[in-house]
Amino acid sequence: MDAHFDVAIIGAGHGGAQVAIQLRQLGFAGTIGLIGAEPEPPYERPPLSKDYLAGEKAFERMLIRPESFWAERDVSLVPGTRIAMVDAEAKTVTSEGGRSFGYGALVWAAGGTPRRLACAGGDLAGVHVLRCRAEVDLIRAELEDARHVSVIGGGYIGLEAAAVLTKLGKKVSVVEALDRVLARVAAPEISQFYEAEHRAHGVELLLGRSVDRIEGESCRARRVVLNDVGEIETDLVIAGIGIDPAAGPLLAAGAEGGNGIHVDAHCRTSLPDIYAIGDCAAQESRFAGGARVRLESVQNAHDSASTAARAIAGLAEPHDAVPWFWSNQYDLRLQTVGLSLGHDRTVLRGRPEDRSFSLVYLREGRVIALDCVNAVRDYAQGRRLVQEGYSPDPAKLADPAVPLKELS
Question: What's the pLDDT score for residue 77?
Answer without folding.
Answer: 98
